[in-house]
Amino acid sequence: MKALLMFEDRDFQTDTALLDALERPYVRRQAPVEKPPVGQRDLIQDFELETLWHAMALDDLVVYVSARTAMLAGLGSVEQIRYRQAVFADCLAQPDVVREIYGLAVQAIVEERSIFRGSFSLTHNSSAPLSTSITRLEAFLPILQRLRALTDEHAGRFTSKGFTRFFDTLRRELDEDYFQEISQHLGYLRLRDGVLMSARLGTGGQGIDYVLRAPRPDNRLFRFRRVMLNRPTFSHTVPPRDQAGGQALGRLRDRGVNLAANALGQSTDHIHGFFTALRTELGFYVGCLNLHDQLTAKGEPECLPDPHPAGTSVWSAQALFDPCLSLRLPGRVQGNDLRADGKPLLVITGANQGGKSTFLRSLGLAQLMMQAGMATPAESFAATVTTGVFTHCKREEDATMTSGKFDEELARMGTLVTAITPGALLLCNESFAATNEREASEIADGFIHAMNDIDVKIVFVTHLYTLAHRYHQQHADTTVFLRAERGRDGQRPFRLIPAAPLPTSYGEDLYRRTFTETDTAHTDSSASR
To answer: How far is residue 283's CA from residue 172's CA, in Å, rounded to a whole number?
Structure first.
């Protein structure tokens, strides 16, 4: 059985090493840490993805790892995205059922682990592997029965291809004959009637082809049928004190029992693999439900985005907001609109602390969430599927003083360029600002042209008026210009509007606010004395 709720044609593979390290941090591991892809650490830092993943997980490590894996390994086609969206729409319509199925998968894994921990204390004899496999199967059986009951009760309410096929598989595989057959085999394998085996004589009179036989009624009457047919029977009784004979008989018993134990172990491993995959795949959707509950509880909008195939140039949003910022604040946050269809470049300018960086994050997060098959934080969102999302944001100066700030920017951008492919999205926040405006504008101009020439879409947040003004004069037909608003009183509404760049970022507003507050504090302190 396969879950197939994340992909139509294959299982969803998560970082099992990361999950193991998080679940068992006390275990020493000598395996080398795998180096993350270029730009991944910056992406996590710049978009504050840890905030989002922890909100989705709610302390569930499986959900955390599933969400992390899905967002960092985005889907590359519209069909894959819509497949997940349909599954998530079913989750939104039937959240209690989905959470219960996830809980059953978690329960199966937890109970099986407790069995393995207990098996270490068992005496290591021929019956131990068989006994452990029987105990595992007995633990799985009621969970499988509950899963089948949920299928009968609720399958008709699910409409997505993923869930429809999932429930059809459960109906087909977990029928009454299946459960009866398992119960019957478990009864046989407890070996309450002893061990009945068949074998043949091989070379040198050695026994070969040992097979454990089911104790059917005709086998139990085997001796009496032989007597009735007047055929010879052969038997041997091992004396109680014959240790060597008992050991030899035990070895014969093991040869038959071990075959059954191995077969049963493979069957239980298959069931365990199904529950593991189900837990991993539903973990992602449970995380999406957790995030949905937290955002909608605050009145924030969410939507299933509209993905468009590579080769198109679609990019629009309504009331798009930064979910990580919303999760940290008690109230709702300001959303913004975007209309950038057919435009490969988006230049954002305007007042300091006016919401430019927040809008940049909201765009990048929406793209990642869309390509993971998630709902996006907006009233509506439509975009072209990209080959990757990359960020280049300003960093603090190197504390070791081994390189200057501008050197660090160029080195980091050079590394990014080696990984960026045509059709990617690059989000830049104050890139190249560590040098003077003339040089920075020239470098940024050449870089933007080079990226656009290989079909890389760019969002460029900048205070470089020379650069922004040049593009507004020469490339207005291929560029969207947004500007952070400033109120008449200098306050920031954190709203971006389509507007031409201005030669000022209104830094004096921050100066006045900072020093007015400082002077007020000094005055209040003097008055109190």
So the answer is: 24
